[in-house]
Amino acid sequence: MNPVRCALALAVAFGVTAAAPAATTADADSFVAAVNQELRDNYVEITAAQWVAETYINGDTETLVAKANERALGRLSVNVDKSRQFDGLAGLSPLTRRGIDLLKLQTAMPAPKDPAKLAELTQIASRLNAAYGSGKSCSDEAKPETCRNLDQLSKVLAENRDWDADLEAWTAWHRTARGMRKDYVRFAELVNEGSREMGYANAGDMWRAGYDMSSADFRKETDRLWSQVQPLYKDLQCYAQHKLEQQYPGKLAKDGTIPAHITGNMWSQDWAALYPLLQPYPGVSNLDVDAALKEKQYTPVAMVQRAEDFYSSVGFPPLPKSFYEKSQLTRPADRDVVCHASAWDLNLDGDVRIKMCINANEEDFRTIYHELGHIYYYLAYNTLPPLFQTGAHDGFHEAIGDTIQLSLTPGYLAQIGLAGATRPSKEAMLNAQMKLALEKIAFLPFGKLIDEWRWGVFDGSIKPENYNAAWWALKKKYQGVAPSVTRSEEDFDPGAKYHVPGNTPYMRYFLAHILQFQFQRELCKAGGVKGPLHECSIYGNKTAGAKYWAMLQKGSSQPWQETLKELTGKGEMDASAILDYFAPLHAWLKQQNKGKSCGWE
Ligand code: X8Z
Ligand code: ZN
């Protein structure tokens, strides 16, 4: 079963009666209807188990969620087997065919049928998830007051530019993942076995099968998109690397890479914290949202309401009252929880929640807009049969709120009092572009490499004895980022990133980072917003909102290519929108990098 994480892929069907042999198309229709009904009937039990396991980590909730997943995955296997009688049956209605195809892709954690292995897999998955959520680094294990969690260690990286303090915090967090390695090796073996039983070559092959194209074509598609954006990333990396060299004279490696611990982010996936160091024209604009949130004493609830206000302004429905009552917005003081932000649909009928540990800072403020994107997707497609209650593909789900983030322009932020009013100028525009690029462009290679690592683990080209070395080889190849302390196979650095122990596929975020600019280009056009794309905010624009909502309502009821075509007129993912968006910054970066050596060995 695909555990509820960032965007919930529906739970699994339970014990639907098989159609008779020599199945007919009418049998297939009934089968899919029965699966949908069973999904509804059994949905709440599993999401409730997952919710408590993540908001109340202890041995008991770990057991409960493992058991719930075990039952669900067992029943999924049964139903996938039953659905095989319709393989090759001519004359199926497209919706029934699609329902059957989507059934096989219900989970990112395909389990072997062998009951002992199934139980083992769900226990490992729960243990890994709990281990990440409760991860802490303690200077004295016997003294809890010496322990620091991910928030505390991340804060050091984001706010402190001291080389040694950052290195210490980075190393401390990465140490927490060492113990996960053995579990992950077994986890990979078991999901591979489950995938093979479902008819896929391995778990990576199965993950890549969820995009209305062949697994091989999908791989090529990700390479094609990366080749479109790579030149822009390389220029940003070059500029940042030289600036960091000035900031930390003599400290950087000579090979052109950026040290992993000084980007202001634990995984070097978002470099926004480096903005003060990298801004093109200091003093020209005031984009310090962190300071404004603190100054205005924004509470976590007020931050969420601020984000809700945006979605309401484009005509989306209000969030249900239960959303505010049942969401977890802050880190509880008395227990371990999985703080990594996620959005949940607990019952397919309006019980939607987010789970975050919000602090009054800009990163969390933006993440709230991201999470609400998932929430409104759930609400929009709740009227569909459960099998279609997922994103057009998972990258769409991740792109909904991110698109809205693009409307958090300096103009919008000034309007709501979270940034200073800035006189429009080329300099101010380049500052704003840089700030956004440090979030969105810096992310691209990271977004791609996580699953390249896992695809390699699953297809056997990355062996357990090479897990960590392969991870860093990919970090270097794609990001031009390298660790400043020696790493070895004692370490398991992939485990320090939530989505690995949490088993959330990651290519979705890479796709979302391309798609969100396509969406934004179209919404701005549909909404009649004049001016350059990078200045467009659809705040208050009900025409754009209506067009967006119509897309959300489609869920996965048709191939994503059709859904994208309905919105943008083109059924293909395309990086030209993100490149157009950042064209001014790219030109500026090229200018800055002139005469400098760029690239890494
Ligand atoms: O995991 C997330 C969201 C929840 S779906 C907070 N994101 C990725 C990450 O944090 O690694 C959003 C951007 C990338
Ligand atoms: Zn998300």
Automatic annotation (TrEMBL):
Chloride binds at Y211, R508. Residues 1-22 form the signal peptide. The keyword Transcription regulation does not apply. It comes from the Bacteria. Zn(2+) 1 binds at H370, H374, E398. The keyword Glycoprotein applies. This is Peptidyl-dipeptidase A. It comes from Tahibacter aquaticus.
